[in-house]
Amino acid sequence: MKILIIEDDEKVGSFLSRGLKAEGYLTLLQDSGTAIFDIVSQFEPDVIVLDRMLPQTDGLTLCQQLRSQKVNSRILILSALSEVDERVKGLRAGADDYLGKPFHFEELLARIEALGKRSVSVAPARRLQIADLQLDLDSMTVQRADTKLTLTAKELGILELLMNNSGKVYSRERILTNVWGMNEDPLTNIVDVYMARLRKKIDDPFEVKLLHTRRGLGYCLQEP
């Protein structure tokens, strides 16, 4: 699950990012709402942890703007303004949950888990398959035909992204954003390196090729 953290307090933001990463979440930390719609479009977060008191624009306004743009990510507002009427304002602005500061990290985790479960009706199937290539999302294991394949965490991330969107071309930049996060240098060739590794494992030993390069556009995974 991908979590976008919008928090201008450097210490709080770093604590949230490190803590959630340790729990296995892919996180992206932003210190303001600047260019937030481009960020949401590229990162595609499942949950947005949104600080209410932000520079330039407040969290309630940002929440309303996200909802007006049909952003379906679950939104959890964090705020030192924790009175009942303030929580009501947050929920009416479009937030799915509201947690007062200071908070216990375990409670934050529980709330994020609950928000993730609310999206179960639109979650992808627990097993993805294209031709004879299968990815089990529960065990994160891969096999093609009768051969079990050993992939690294990043290779699995790329494979899940492409299999969830069979036939859709993903640019290097978008793969970088979804799998590594926005903080990775966009000029790096790391995506090409990992795509070559992935192709060597899932395509080279087999007659039918599923991973395709669209010159000047990016990569896609589909049956020929």
TrEMBL record:
Give any single GO term for biological process.
regulation of DNA-templated transcription
Q: Where in this protein does the record say 4-aspartylphosphate is found?
A: D51
Which Gene Ontology CC terms are recorded? cytosol; protein-DNA complex
Q: Name one GO molecular function term.
A: transcription cis-regulatory region binding
Is the rRNA-binding keyword given for this protein?
Answer: no
- Domain named OmpR/PhoB-type is located at 125-223
Domain of life, source organism:
Bacteria
Keywords for the protein's UniProt record, in alphabetical order: DNA-binding, Phosphoprotein, Transcription, Transcription regulation, Two-component regulatory system
Residues in the DNA-binding region are 125-223
> Would the keyword Zinc turn up in this protein's UniProt record?
no
| Domain Response regulatory span(s) in chain numbering | 2-116
Which Pfam families does the record cross-reference, listed alphabetically? Response_reg, Trans_reg_C
Q: In its UniProt entry, what is this protein called? A: DNA-binding response regulator, OmpR family, contains REC and winged-helix (WHTH) domain
Q: What is the lineage of its organism?
A: Bacteria, Pseudomonadati, Pseudomonadota, Gammaproteobacteria, Chromatiales
